[in-house]
Amino acid sequence: MASSETSAAPVMGPVARPGLRPGVRPVVRPVVRPGPGGPAASPGAPDAPAAPDRPAGPDPLAALAAELRALPPSCGPVRLVAVDGHAGSGKTTFAARLAAALGGAPVVHLDDLATHAEPFGWTERLRGQVLEPLAAGRDAEYEVYDWTLRRFAGTAAVPLAPVVLVEGVGAGRRAVRPELARLVWMELDAAAARRRGEQRDGPGLAEFWAGWALAESAHFAADPSRPHAGTLVDGVTGRIAPGTVGEPSTTPLTCDVARK
Fold first, then answer.
1. How far is CA 174 from CA 1, 29, 116, 226, in A?
2. Which of 37, 193, 200, 255 could form a disulfide with 89 if both were Cys (CB 3.0 to 4.6 A apart)?
3. Rounded to two decimals, what is the model's pTM?
4. What does the alpha-carbon distance between residue 134 and residue 249 come to, in Å, rounded to a whole number?
């Protein structure tokens, strides 16, 4: 499948944000990630959606997990599910919740595959190191980029599982969509997501965020993900939008779907 990289993205500046994202993946060596991806937020942190109040009746997250498990495999024996949205929209937090609801589904974090020079140049790494092994029915392992050392250092394992999540900006891009069983989009506009990220990271990463915003805007202008999403999640509350559990990933969505 042809790759569709955003080639005009600016080179990212130095990043010194420490912290590891807790999750289900074993990483051979600790790594440091950039501000826009960031480590998973603790409850109440600026980049975390609020824990949704559990409504009376069936749990929407459990219902979504059950629906994803029942989908036809999309990448060999795996149901590959993307969690996409603007940087700071709560993708990592929601992916962790969804992985737990799925009984510990593996999560691939795209900011492990991106680099300073190529923030969106990870398609072939994702394909060769993750998608092709999973499609062949094998466990996968990918190299993890260290944002402090500015090189790949360490690896992360992706065990073969019924559902595997891929989270990050551009996870639902054109080059990946044919392999997806479902595309989940975090509903938070770019300006609000950036404000959240800048508040989280502080003034030391202002230059990084400025460069990242240009790269992200160029990517989504050329290769939008949201029109292809089958499930919408409010980036502020973490709630799954009514009516977006059960829609195919190719169904066009209007901007007011999550507000109905």
1. 10, 31, 22, 11
2. 193
3. 0.78
4. 21
User: What residue has token string 């990933």?
Assistant: 249
pLDDT in tens, 98-143: 999 999 999 999 999 999 999 999 999 999 999 999 999 999 999 9
Cα–Cα distance, 39 to 175 (Å, whole number): 26
pLDDT, tens only, 167-213:
999 999 999 999 999 999 999 999 999 999 999 888 888 888 898 99
The residues, any chain, with a CB within 8 Å of residue 152's CB and separated by 6 or more, are 143, 144, 145, 146
Q: How far apart are CA 183 and CA 83, in angstroms?
A: 6
Please work out, in degrees rounded to the nearest 5, the angle formed at the alpha carbon of residue 108 by the alpha carbons of 30 and 83: 130
Closest CA to 201 of 15, 73, 22, 6: 15
